[in-house]
Specification:
alpha/beta, 4-stranded parallel β-sheet, 3-stranded antiparallel β-sheet, 10 helices, 35% helix, 14% strand
Length: 324
C-alpha cells in the first residue's frame, strides 16, 4: 500500500529529497503527477517538460535506492494523435493526418492519400503513437521511462492510457484541463461553452470512479505487470453533444455552445477507446452511465465557484499563432 503520510507526496516533483523521503515505507507508487493540457504545452514547453519528464526521471532515480513492488503511471490517449481509422477499401489506417489547418480551409476530417474520407474506429493499444503536442510527447516519455526503469531494478511497471476523465473534483478554473470541466466553468458563470472546429470531433468520456477502480486493480493484479492499457468507456460522443447534455444537466438549457470554427494546433479530430485488452487483463469495463455521471458532476459544480479563464486561454493561443 502507499504510505498514507505520502498522500501529498511533494510540492515539486523535481525535489529529489522530498521524493526520496516520501518513498520510505512505500510498497507501490501511483504516478499521477503532471502538467496537463495540449494547448498550453505548445508554448510553456520548458515547464511541461521539466515537470512531466524530469519529474518522472527524479522519481525513478530515487526508486533505484528504494525500489517498490509496482509503479502504475498515468499516461494519456493524447499519445495516439489521431485515433485509428478505416479507409474506403476497408483497410485500417494508423497514421491518419489532416491537411494543414493554416491554409484558410476547414479541413477538419482526415482523408487518405487520394482525398477519400476515413471512418474513425476504436483505438487499441497497438496503434503507433503520433505525438502531435508537447504534452503528448511528455506522456509518452513517462510511459517509456516507467517500462525502461522498472524491470532492471526488480519492479513491475504498468501504464494506463486515460481517455477523457470527468467527475467531481476537477479543476474548474484551469482552461487547459478536461473539456467537461472547462464547459462546466463557462456554464457556471453564465457563459457559452467554447468549442473549436465545428464541434463534431468525437471523444471518449470515462468517469473518475471507473478510473480509480482501474488504478486499484492495476496495482495488484499479477497479469497487469509490464502492461499498457487503455482506460475509457468504449463509447464516443461529439463535443457539441457533450456540451449540450452538460448544459441540460446544469439547468442551463438556454445557453448554447459557441462554435469557434477554428482549430487549435496540436488538437486531433477523433479518438475513442478500444477497451479489449483492459477487459482481458484487468477485467475492466466502465460502469458509470454517462447521464448519471453528468448529473453528479452538475450537482457538485453547483456548490463551487470558478474563475472563467477561457477567453484568456484563447487570447494566449491566438497571440502565438496556435489557432488556425
Amino acid at each position: 500500500m502507499l504510505n498514507p503520510d505520502a498522500e501529498l507526496i511533494v510540492g515539486d516533483v523535481r525535489d529529489g529529497d522530498a521524493v526520496a523521503s516520501a518513498l520510505e515505507g512505500v510498497d507501490s507508487v501511483v504516478h499521477l503527477a503532471a502538467e496537463v493540457g495540449v494547448g498550453q504545452s505548445m508554448y510553456e514547453v520548458e515547464r511541461y517538460t521539466s515537470t512531466n519528464d524530469v519529474g518522472t526521471a527524479v522519481l525513478f532515480e530515487k526508486l533505484i535506492a528504494h525500489p517498490v513492488r509496482r509503479v502504475v503511471t498515468a499516461s494519456s490517449m493524447s499519445i495516439y494523435g489521431e485515433g485509428l481509422y478505416r479507409d474506403a477499401d476497408g483497410e485500417l489506417v494508423q497514421d491518419a493526418e489532416r491537411k494543414s489547418l493554416k491554409d484558410g480551409l476547414a479541413n477538419w476530417e482526415p482523408t487518405d492519400a487520394q482525398g477519400r474520407p476515413l471512418t474513425p474506429v476504436a483505438t487499441p493499444e497497438w496503434k503507433r503513437p503520433a505525438l502531435s503536442s508537447i504534452y503528448a510527447l511528455n506522456k509518452y516519455v513517462q510511459e517509456r521511462t516507467t517500462h525502461i526503469m522498472a524491470e532492471p531494478y526488480g519492479m513491475e511497471g504498468v501504464c494506463l492510457r486515460l481517455f477523457n476523465v470527468y467527475g467531481p473534483g476537477q479543476a474548474l478554473s484551469n482552461p487547459y484541463t478536461g473539456v467537461l470541466a472547462i464547459f462546466a466553468s463557462r456554464l457556471l458563470n453564465g457563459q457559452q461553452p467554447m468549442i473549436f472546429e465545428d464541434g463534431e470531433q468525437r471523444r471518449d468520456f470515462v468517469h473518475v470512479t471507473d478510473v480509480a477502480r482501474a488504478f486499484a486493480d492495476a496495482l495488484y493484479l499479477p497479469q497487469a505487470a509490464g502492461g499498457t492499457f487503455n482506460i475509457g468507456s468504449g463509447q464516443h460522443r461529439s463535443v457539441t453533444e457533450v456540451a449540450t447534455e452538460l448544459a441540460r444537466a446544469m439547468g442551463k438549457n438556454q445557453i448554447e455552445p459557441q462554435i469557434v470554427g477554428k482549430a487549435r494546433i496540436g488538437d486531433i479530430r477523433h479518438c475513442f477507446c478500444d477497451g479489449t485488452l483492459a477487459a482481458q487483463k484487468l477485467d475492466f469495463r466502465a460502469e458509470q452511465d454517462f447521464g448519471t455521471g453528468l448529473a453528479e458532476l452538475a450537482e457538485w459544480v453547483a456548490s463551487q465557484t470558478a474563475k472563467d479563464r477561457v477567453e484568456q486561454m484563447r487570447a494566449e493561443l491566438d497571440a502565438r499563432g496556435l489557432v488556425a
